[in-house]
Amino acid sequence: MRLVEVGRLELEVHDVGTGEPVVLVQTALTADELAPLADHLVAHGAYRAILYHRRGYARSSPVQGPGSVVRDAADCRNLIDALGLGRVHIVGYSYSGAVSLQFAADAAKYVQTLTLIEPPPVHVPSSADFRAANARLQKVRQVYGPDTALAHFLNQVIGPHWRAEVEQRLPGAAEQMQRDSTTFFDTDLPALMSWRFDVEDARRISCPVLHVSGTDSGPWFAEVRKLVRTWLPQTEDILLTGADHSLPLTHTPQIADALADFLGRHTMVAGRGMK
Q1: Nearest residue to 44 (alpha-carbon basis) of 83, 13, 16
Q2: In this structure, what DSSP letter does residue 245 have?
Q3: Exposed (0-12), middle (13-18) or buried (19+): which is 221, by Cβ within 10 Å?
Q4: Does residue 186 lie within any of the structural domains?
Q5: I need a labelling partner for 133 at 20 to 30 A (CA). Which of 95, 207, 247, 260 fits?
Q6: Is 179 part of a structural domain of the chain?
Q7: Percent of the chain having pLDDT more than 70?
Q8: Which CA distances in Å does 16 have to 10, 21, 50, 158?
């Protein structure tokens, strides 16, 4: 991975393959959760996969000031400019699904396609429950510190053997999450809770959209699926049997195949510039 100057920032970039550029926006907490998907996509041929670490993660510049989904989307746009990519395919998962939606609304001329893998349930009918769960997690962080809060969070979403399971799926991730947990709790979660996005914002997105979700991800993400299809009626929808919210790691080949098929049907027109 290399560091790329993006204005006053440096962002760490994993850039592999050749062909149409696909930018995979890093989600919260786990810096390389989309790296296996990037590598599987490149194996299909015809694609250049760019996965970058957002502010406060790995070797990218530290966070300064409050977190913001809008700012994360602007960082994505500025990175695309710094790399001279022009028009790109965008992929976002969980927190970075929010960033990708914001980016597609704010910088539509950059976006050839938008792929969303279970964006966060902050605007669904049961969002109050999701927000309350995050408030409880933030309280643990404030009282006991980020390390205890991280263990508490991962015990809930993965189980008591989360460290071994994470390392088996993504070697080195447990240490990285521990190291960057402050960014997750103090920057990303507040940014997500303050993110405002509605149907009027969604109307600015006219590109082809793919939504990928799992049958076992629970009611919050079932509501997200319905909301995305309502906001973005052009959405193509894929529901993976037996998958939960860890699906980019547990169902990587299936997602890569679906993504390659989707991108293959929405290729860039030769010579088409940004408008």
Answers
A1: 16
A2: T
A3: buried
A4: no
A5: 247
A6: no
A7: 97
A8: 19, 10, 7, 30
- Give pLDDT tens digits for 214-254: 999 999 999 999 999 999 999 999 999 999 999 999 999 99
- CA 250, 190, 222: angle at the middle one, nearest 5? 40
Q: Which of 180, 223, 189 is nearest to 69 (CA)?
A: 189
Q: What's this model's pTM, rounded to 2 decimal places?
A: 0.95
Query: 102: domain CATH number?
Result: 3.40.50.1820
DSSP one-letter string for 17-39: E-SEEEEEE--SS-TTTTHHHHH
The verdict on residue 92 lying in a domain is: yes
User: What total of structural domains would you count in the chain?
Assistant: 1
Edge-to-edge strand list for the sheet holding 209-214:
2-6, 9-17, 47-52, 20-25, 88-93, 111-117, 209-214, 235-240
Q: Domain span at residue 259?
A: 2-125+197-264
Q: Residues near 14 by Cβ (< 8 Å), separated by ≥ 6?
A: 1, 32, 35, 38, 49, 50, 51, 52
Note every long-range contact of 141-146, with CB atoms under 8 Å and residues 24 or more positions apart, other chains counting. 141/185, 141/186, 146/181, 146/182, 146/184, 146/185, 146/186
Specify the pLDDT at position 271: 38
The residue to which tokens 């406060």 are assigned: 56
How much is the pLDDT for 201? 98
Cα 147 from Cα 180, distance rounded (Å) = 10
- The verdict on residue 132 lying in a domain is no
Backbone region of residue 98 per phi and psi (left: phi > 0; alpha: psi in -120 to 50; beta: other values): alpha
Q: What does the block give as tokens for 63?
A: 């966070």
